[in-house]
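Re: folding output
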Amino acid sequence: MNYLKILAFACLSLLVFSCKDDEQQRLAETKRAEQVNDSILKVISRNWHFDVPQPTAKAAQQLAGWNEWEQFNNELQQKPTSTLEAFRRKANVLVTKAEVLKNNIPAFLNKPQVRARLDVVITNIQMIYTYMNIETIPDKKIISLIGSITRELTATQNQVDEIIRISEIPKEEGEQEMLRAMDTTRLANPDAMNTPPQAQPLTPTPQRPPGHGAFMKQRNTP
């Protein structure tokens, strides 16, 4: 009986020590991960710069009424404090601001090329948020995404300048009338602009029998 008690006590002690070892190992791994992330965070903090140039005067005028664009860019310029939680909160806020960018694009700028660039910006912001919330943060990927976002935002402003430039090109009077007529037709019946014209059936030309001309000439000769 005493033997069984000793055996049970030994097993229980072994289990307790094993649990303590596992807990200590887990705490040690967590501490190492925190130390690595602290070092990585310093690198990210040094590179957290979205250096988008100021838009031209004409582009700024077109962007002025786009509140979502202004709020997103203002949020980008506010650098978080150098703590992991601060950067995670910033990434979360940026995702929220980015995902509404396409909701109220001004009609003049609502072009496929502008929307495509915004899609890239939104995707990259979401990826930053994902990387900031994993156990070991991949600093090189986040720095690369920061550069990509900066380039896409700059390219979007350049695209606005291009849209303005094209709109200012003088058009011939006949071309303007034709474009207005096409727009009117498209608005009245948008499906018609995408429907290919149907081929008209050909009316067969009646065939004259051989010698018909000579016969008629002979018949009319007195």
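--- second protein (sequence, then structure) ---
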Amino acid sequence: MVRHMSLLDLPRPLYFVFGGGGSLGAAHVGMLNAVKETGLRPDAVIGTSVGAVNGVVVAEDPDGAADRLLDIWDHIGRSDIFPGNAAEWLFQLGKSRTHFYSERGVHHTLNSHLNSRQMSDLTLPFATVATDFELAIPRIITEGSIDAAIEASAAIPAMFPMAEIDGSILCDGGVVANVPVIQAMELGARSMVVFDCVGPMSWGQSNIIEVMAGLGGVVQQRQRLRNMPVVAEQMPVLYLPPPVTLASPISFSHTTELIRNAYHRAVRYFNELDEDAVTNPGFYGEIPRLQKDEHPEL
């Protein structure tokens, strides 16, 4: 159990910032349960890719989101998000020439678990981040259709079709802002809790998914090292420790372990937090770095 009254004095508005990571987003559920025990409630939410999927549930139901997300993740399997078999994937690629999977799995998940359809219907202000493919810049989406916004933010290149909003071609926000702390700052955050679900990973090269995941991990690590210090100069950044796992971001067989691992790590984080310093600008946490002798805790 976490008890930290000082956290309630964090400067407002307080943003919950959810990072991308495919099926590793299950870790957000464990983190949310630990945060709930502190009494913290966000003023606004922003997320990228799977972080947008989880984040929009928080924005719709900030008090009940942890339980709702636990139920959602308990019932999601790989075929729900990455539907079809190998023959269908190759057929889809041959037909589209750009992607393996249909976006219908993401659509179905959202429509099955959300009551809101427009971002204006949500309880809290919500934003998601996509990548403008032609301009190579982050695109912050704060209004319009929830379905369209999250489809764009989660459109992993070569896996899902790119989306079009207001004439712009958009793809997965993780390409430029996997953990959108800079964008939260631009929207007016004065403090933030960061839910980063991608911890230290060591990928092989036995298939294209491992190669893509490894490349994504390199890009995301560079983003963390560049962006976190910039934001921490301006405000308190509470960076929850990501789970330590070698699970693939398209495998849904480790959901329970991810949730449990992330919860225990977050509880330990809060119990070790310096109460006297936490309301001051600074980075409170540790950006994970892969060590060759490091083993997963799952």
